Amino acid sequence: MDLSTVNKVIFEIRAGAGGDEAAIFAGDLARMYQRYCAKIGWSFAIVDSNQTSNDGYKSLTARVMGDGVYNAFKNESGVHRVQRVPQTEKAGRIHTSTATIAILPEIEPKELVINPNDLEFTFSRAGGPGGQNVNKVETAVRVLHKPSGIVVGSRSERSQYANRELAVGLLRAKLYEMQQEKEIGSLSSDRKSQVGTGDRSEKIRTYNFPDDRITDHRIGKKWHNIESIMEGNMEKIIDAMKEMGMEQK
Question: Where do the structural domains in the chain lie, given as residue ranges?
Fold first, then answer.
């Protein structure tokens, strides 16, 4: 499958080490990407989330659509690290927290067929914004893929059917990712060094607020004016990944 033509991706952001500050950082990253998408005319729709009381996210799943979206975001997968003084830190100490990002290409049904007998659906009230209908009708959907144990959900759409279709799409993307990881695992070490392993445990980028610096550890490049970048002005980062040979192999 030619992933360079994929114009729909599943965006997953999860808080890592660092407690509340990690959740706040995950929320900051989500808003950065959302603002970047808005700038260039791409849609960024939150499908499911576990939000905290301080506007952070323990986890967030979004569907992003736009021309060239996969090529733009595919290199964002990995562990992002932040170094800054949290608002709750009274002694002025710098804390280090992390968030994990996964970018999954949305796969057409013909590319990966799922056996309906392998799926188990549960339904609930969506809650949150969207009008009274959202709260009174069980429109939110969770789907379990029994062979793999993967569970995904959708609550962004107004109908149960639409959320069901979207949830299955999320599942298909995750199963495709598992399939690709299995194939990479069977490659020789030489080939792995060429295509990469996609290991999300690797720290790819550090956001150092005291020094006003973002560093990408894969290409050794640094950017300043961190507040502006966090407002969605991240074109220089996206472009640098392509210039330094981070394109899909």
Answer: 3-107+196-243, 110-185
